[in-house]
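Hi C.,

You asked whether I'd gotten around to modeling the 315-residue construct. I have! Everything is below, sequence then structure, no commentary in between.
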Amino acid sequence: MGDPEGQRLRALIVGTGAVGGWFGGRLALAGHDVTVVARGANAAAIEGGGLRLVQGERVEIARPRVVRDTREARGLGADVAWICVKAWQLGEVAEATGEALAPGGVAVPLLNGLDSERALAGALGAARVVGGVAQLNAALAAPGEVRLAGGGAVTLAPLPGGPLEPVRALAERVSDAFPCHVDADLDRLLWWKLLWNAPFNAVCALTGLAAGPVLADPALERLVRGVMGEVIAVAAAEGVSLATDAPDAMIEVTRAALGDSEPSMLHDVRAGRRTEVDALQGAVVARGARHAIPTPLTEALRALVAARAYGPPPG
């Protein structure tokens, strides 16, 4: 992956919201060569005043290069492209992202759901894709400003059957910018993330509550646990074993460290944007149907979020 004499990466960030903004900003602050794809007021703010990373009282300003469309990055020769758009936008940026990579470069989709890595591999070839999951509680607080409330790490994994060593090498090269871990089992990593996302994204979006207040309501906690049970059953049918006590562990972590987390689906509903309901709840429902496993709670959440996001405006 390029730059054999040193650790400096040429990185492309496709989508500079909270996830792309934080990790792209950290890479730029660590001295890597970073180009971000941003639009509108966000792009103007980054060009004019830099990308502000706020964590508590600490404010750092990164100054990456800005382009307004992924197609403008063609020929960049990126060692790694971090794709941080919504799951449903992946098809819009996949081809141009591939054209921005160096011959040995790879693309890492930090997206929600279960299908992004395989879809991207279909477009670019499996050798050019590394799986990834972001552990991040952050928000785009204003154009050009990302506020981190917790987390800030990435876990990388090879596609099933792919080699582990190149993934380890990439993790090592970015470890000066943010914690980056390696996992050999991509499918389990994605299902583990979905175990949290499937219930909390939807319940928070529908109630307007952060994760902690959701768990403070016993009825909502039972709903969360019920959806998690459906996720575990469907994952098992797909060949991925999640422990039956996984909901206890996930809820304990949420209470301890993620209580103020407002998932992306809540922000999308508030802003009237298209949600990732198909990539999250829809993924569980579709796979459940494939294996004749009932998922009534997840299906209800999917229908309610879809109606909330796409239904006629009140009045």
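If it helps when you're writing up: Confidence is low (pLDDT under 50) at residues 1-5, 311-315.

Thanks,
B.
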